[in-house]
Each structure stands twice: as structure tokens, then as C-alpha cells.
Specification:
Elements lengths: L4 H19 L2 H8 L3 H8 L2 H25 L3 H10 L15 H6 L7 H27 L9 H18 L6 H15 L4
Helix pairs in contact: 1-2, 1-4, 3-4, 4-5, 4-7, 5-9, 7-8, 8-9
Pfam families: TetR_C_13, TetR_N
Keywords: DNA-binding, Transcription, Transcription regulation
GO molecular function: DNA binding
């Protein structure tokens, strides 16, 4: 019955990703972690503490991937691959097509203030990563120097949210590929 903290966070992340913060009950979490409530509370304080740990790990993973994209030989190609990979999850992992941040954000009005604040920070981190990719692409002349970086990052983040939200309901992968291609085509156009 003993799982490491990292394993517990990963297992809880899956529950939150599948059910959302509001929809995930402590019984769901206990079952996934194969732990008694007392050990979960001792390790994380409460459900919110566990979610915040999972969100931090998830957000750091996205931030790391975006920084890697900004350092790639072709930042836009790396970003497109990063954004497209989750869209192709098989049926049993369909929940992974949607971003955990976006999934939780859908319950905004029901979330504790601490989670709302962490979501704002997570969205800011994603936006900062997109800014880094755009700046790297501009430096490599893959995007026009006149492209307004912050505006483009905000737009890309909106497209990312829409794409990842729609990906859970679209069965035709070619539709998702078309949307991803359109995002990058539009990014390169005149602003």
C-alpha cells in the first residue's frame, strides 16, 4: 500500500484530469492512490493540497516542454508537435486530450480561492512559455519581427485552450490536424 509522493501525485493527477477538481471525491482519490484518508491528509493536508501538488507537477511539465520548444532548431515545429501529440490519445486516454488546467478552469466558480490563484499562475506560466517560443521563432526569422509577441502568445493560448477542449469530443483526428495547421498558418500571417 505504500506509494511514493511522486506516484501519489501522478495517480491523483489522473483522477483530477478525468473527473475535474469538483467531481473528484476523496473515495476516488483513495482508490486511485490505494491509501487511507489519514495518510493522504498527512501527506497533502487535504484534497486541495493534493490538487495543488498535482497542478504544480503538471504545469512544470508544460513549462519545461515549452522551454524545450524555444530552444529547438525549429521552435514552431517543436511547438506544433507538442500541441498536437495529446490530440492523438487513444480512446481509453481521451481525457488526456484536454489540458488539466483547462479541465479545472471549467469549474471556476466552484473552486476554492487557493486553486483559482494557482490556476491563474499556471496560465501565466503557459503564456510565458509561449512568449519564449514566439521570441525564439522571431529570432530565427520563422515569424515576422513585427508580430506583437504578447498579443500572439495570448492568442495562441486561447487557441490551445479551444483545441484541447474540442479534442475530447471530436472523433476525427483529421479535423484536429486541420485546426492545428490553421493555428500555425494564422500565426504566420499579417497581424
Amino acid at each position: 500500500m505504500s506509494n511514493s509522493r511522486e506516484q501519489s501525485i501522478q495517480q491523483a493527477m489522473t483522477v483530477f484530469w478525468q473527473k475535474g477538481y469538483v467531481g473528484a471525491g476523496m473515495r476516488d482519490i483513495q482508490t486511485a492512490l490505494d491509501k487511507r484518508p489519514g495518510s493522504i491528509y498527512a501527506a497533502f493536508g487535504n484534497k486541495e493540497g493534493l490538487y495543488l501538488a498535482a497542478l504544480e507537477v503538471y504545469t512544470q511539465g508544460i513549462a519545461d516542454r515549452l522551454i524545450a520548444c524555444s530552444h529547438a532548431a525549429e521552435p514552431l515545429d517543436a511547438l506544433k508537435e507538442f500541441l498536437g501529440t495529446p490530440l492523438l490519445q487513444n480512446d481509453e486516454d481521451t481525457y488526456m486530450r484536454q489540458c488539466l488546467i483547462v479541465k479545472t478552469q471549467a469549474d471556476w466558480l466552484e473552486l476554492p480561492e487557493g486553486i483559482q490563484n494557482s490556476l491563474r499562475k499556471a496560465l501565466g506560466n503557459v503564456r510565458d512559455g509561449l512568449i519564449a517560443v514566439i521570441e525564439a521563432a522571431k529570432a530565427k526569422q520563422a515569424l515576422a519581427e513585427s508580430l506583437p509577441t504578447e498579443q500572439a502568445a495570448t492568442w495562441l493560448q486561447g487557441q490551445f485552450i479551444a483545441l484541447r477542449t474540442m479534442a475530447t469530443t471530436v472523433d476525427d483526428a483529421s479535423s484536429l490536424s486541420w485546426m492545428l495547421d490553421k493555428m500555425f498558418s494564422d500565426l504566420k500571417k499579417q497581424w
